[in-house]
Amino acid sequence: MEELTKKQSAILEYMKGHVAEHSYWPSIRDIQAKFRFASTNAVFGHLQALERKGVLQRIPGAARAYKVAPVALVEDLSETIIRYEGPDENAIQLGSIPFMGSIAAGLPDYTESSGVVASMQAPITEGSRRRAPQSFALRVRGDSMIDADIQDGDTVIIEPGHPKHGDIVAALIDGQTTLKRLVKQGSKTFLKAENANYPDLVPVTELVIQGIAKSVVKPI
Amino acid sequence: MEELTKKQSAILEYMKGHVAEHSYWPSIRDIQAKFRFASTNAVFGHLQALERKGVLQRIPGAARAYKVAPVALVEDLSETIIRYEGPDENAIQLGSIPFMGSIAAGLPDYTESSGVVASMQAPITEGSRRRAPQSFALRVRGDSMIDADIQDGDTVIIEPGHPKHGDIVAALIDGQTTLKRLVKQGSKTFLKAENANYPDLVPVTELVIQGIAKSVVKPI
DNA sequence: CTTGACAGTGAACAAGTTTTCATAGAACAT
DNA sequence: ATGTTCTATGAAAACTTGTTCACTGTCAAG
Question: What are the chain B neighbours of A217 within 8 Å (beta carbons)?
């Protein structure tokens, strides 16, 4: 793909930004005004260049109608594979969740000796959505939860709250964050590993629940 | 929010689908042709109604220029979606993934008849980190990918990129976003549903890849 | 020194598009 | 019965917008 000149990429960026902000493409005169061109033809030339260089596709005659970045494509195919670009607005902006480090899903003392397991930090409170719970993400190390379909390398989303019987929780045990299922039997509380090879119920005296695992993110 | 009449929501769906497929809005005449109106004014009236009901915002006088009201589709999901963290972990990368709507994991024409499946809108181009990939989240509807451990109700994180053979991609087929595995056999491209009950290979002539499914978010 | 790509002005045209006006039947509630 | 909303037609007006033509200038490469 040919290189874009400074102005060309500036115009392309402006166009994309306009789409992101307004959800529709700018007209040639919009671009003209933005860059203070005295003629629409200046824009027109740039658009032609952008199209020739393959980063923009115009729809002849149609107003405010473009496609962006026919991204390049699988060489051995004739089909055009286009990276989707376009307006937004239907999108629900989600708040972000800080990634906190790793969590041990094994026995409390069963993890890597070297300080691989990062200690948990306080969740970052994002300014945008204060109503959102202070969730955070933890990467799972270990295999104690594989029967609950939580595997080594997965990431779990932890949210604060009061765990119920049966919830999978992130609990701090012996200075170690572990991921287990919470089991209450009478007045006693246990942590249960979801792995047949592990002791069924681990009694817990001092339990610091750091949050409830609400969802798990798995790489595909 | 007032209820939409059947035709109104049909028009709205068509418009959104047009954006998803072409990345720009349809003109009034486009809509007129699609619905075989004899007059542009029929469309005009519907657009006025859509605007009055608050689901669409027109930009007076501007061609192919609209904004859509955000759909309050999934507030319960907002707590469980995180930004996909790439291989470079430990970097506490903030930033959010817009939730784009639903994706059909069934056959292209196998989705709910009423416009339940929201058409995909463009990812937001965030101003802060332009270098970050424009990821977005989609909720999966359908069961065509259950053998790949992607179930109805899961949320997939889609990222733009060049799909390889074997990647699970979000592809636009018949105006419908579908989630399938990309299979290349010689010079042909297929989409494969990961469900034994579905036809094994669906040949694809026109393929618009909207992104590659990088990870899946599952509720616990 | 010429050639070609790049960048621009200024004006005008043609087509694309939205918008308005006048009109009217069907469904429905008052 | 009557008004209102929804839906639609048909034509025209008015505006927006892409496109073209003619012309000028800069700058680096051959």
Answer: 82, 84, 157, 215-218
All structural domains of chain A with their residue ranges: 6-68, 99-217
Q: Is the CB of residue A177 less than 8 Å from the CB of residue A104? A: yes
Residue A92, H or E segment? strand A92-93
ipTM entry: 0.54
Query: Which of B120, B127, B216 is nearest residue A218 as measured by Cβ atoms?
Result: B216
The answer to whether residues B160 and A83 touch, using CB atoms and an 8 Å cutoff, is yes
CATH class of residue range A99-217: mainly beta
B84 and A114 Cβ atoms separated by less than 8 Å: no
Full pLDDT tens readout for chain B, 220 residues: 456 777 887 888 788 777 766 778 888 888 888 888 888 888 988 888 888 877 778 888 888 888 765 433 222 222 222 232 222 222 222 223 333 434 433 322 222 222 212 222 222 222 223 333 445 566 677 777 878 888 877 777 777 667 778 888 887 665 456 788 888 776 677 788 887 776 667 666 545 666 788 778 787 7
Say which DSSP state B154 is in: -
Tell me the chain B residues in contact with residue A25 when contact means C-beta distances shorter than 8 Å.
Answer: 24, 64
> Is residue A144 annotated as part of the catalytic site, yes or no?
yes
B62:A132 CB<8 A: no
Q: How far apart are CA A66 and CA A122, in angstroms?
A: 45
Contact A145, A193 (CB under 8 A): yes
Q: How far is B110 from chain A (nearest CA, A)?
A: 23
Q: Which helix (H) or strand (E) holds A137?
A: strand A136-141
8 Å CB contact of A25 and B24 = yes
Q: Which CATH number fits domain A6-68: 1.10.150.120, 1.20.1270.50, 3.40.50.360, 1.10.10.10?
A: 1.10.10.10
- Which candidate in B80, B155, B188 is best for mutational testing of the A interface (most A CBs within 10 A)? B80
Asked if residue B41 keeps its beta carbon closer than 7 A to nucleic acid strand D, the reply is yes
Structurally, what CATH architecture does the domain formed by B75-217 represent? Ribbon (2.10)
